[in-house]
Write a structure and sequence with these properties.
There is one protein chain. It contains five helices and 14 strands. By secondary structure, it is of the alpha+beta class. It has two domains: 85 residues, Aminotransferase class 4, branched-chain amino acid transferase, N-terminal domain (D-amino Acid Aminotransferase, Chain A, domain 1); 137 residues, D-amino Acid Aminotransferase, subunit A, domain 2 (D-amino Acid Aminotransferase, Chain A, domain 2, Alpha-Beta Barrel). Helix 4 links the parallel strand 9 and strand 10. The radius of gyration is 18 Å and the shape is globular.
Length: 240
């Protein structure tokens, strides 16, 4: 059933940037959703087995779920299992995207959970209307996060991450650590015309330019995007 959580990681050369952060996320979310202490060593071993013999860059997804948990009794004692899957990873940098704003707040936004229906519904509708994806806002038009990615802005002096109810992604956290001129702050749709650049981040896409949000346009190339990509790729990846 649609109850569980996951993390996705880009592996390249048998290494994963921010791997320890991904493990921390899995352990934290397992406590919240299942009241269970996840074994980090077991997860690491399953990732090693699932990716053995694979070369190049690809995405690894680790899902934590309990196949025996019943729909009518989700409060039963859980015995969560670990599922590891892989899929291809696109080349970086990825093509810029155009997005539409949508008033929507995910359930339990701080957890990377399996409840993706609302997210995919809004993404689908945005794509059917000619956009590449959607970015969420609250009812007061304050920006929070993208459908499956974090969003950041550059105002000419610093990178601004929306201070809102969001899933604080590993890529966002790492960039926040290595880029000095960074802050958390409220970003309203009315603030967008004063921003010099906008970008999306997650482990699969790295740093991806956003060229428009609704009718506000941004450049597909800006020095801050090159700086963030360089800083991110210089972060040492961890051996699995």
């Amino acid at each position: 059933m649609n109850y569980g959580h996951f993390t996705s990681m880009r592996m390249e050369g048998r290494r994963i940037r921010g791997f320890s952060h991904h493990l921390e996320r899995l352990v934290r979310d397992c406590r919240v959703l299942f009241g269970h202490e996840l074994d980090r060593r077991l997860v690491r071993e399953y990732v090693r087995k699932a990716t053995a013999g694979r070369d190049g860059a690809f995405v690894v997804r680790v899902t934590i779920y309990d196949p025996d948990l019943e729909l009518g009794h989700p409060g039963a004692r859980a015995k969560p299992k670990v599922l590891v899957a892989t899929r291809p990873s696109g080349a970086w940098p990825m093509a810029p995207i155009r997005v539409r704003s949508v008033p929507y707040v995910r359930e339990q936004p701080e957890q990377k959970h399996l409840g993706l229906f609302g997210t995919l519904w809004h993404r689908r509708n945005a794509q059917l209307d000619g956009f590449d994806d959607c970015v969420f806002t609250d009812l007061n038009r304050y920006v929070s996060e993208g459908a499956t990615w974090n969003i950041g802005f550059f105002d000419g002096e610093q990178v601004i991450w929306p201070d809102a109810e969001v899933l604080r992604g590993v890529t966002m956290r790492l960039l926040h650590q290595v880029h000095d001129a960074t802050s958390l702050g409220p970003v309203n749709l009315s603030d967008l015309p004063r921003m010099e650049a906008a970008f999306a981040t997650n482990t699969a896409i790295g740093v991806r330019a956003i060229t428009s949000i609704d009718d506000v346009e941004f450049p597909d190339a800006h020095p801050i995007l090159d700086t963030l990509r360089k800083e991110y790729e210089e972060i040492p990846a961890e051996t699995v």
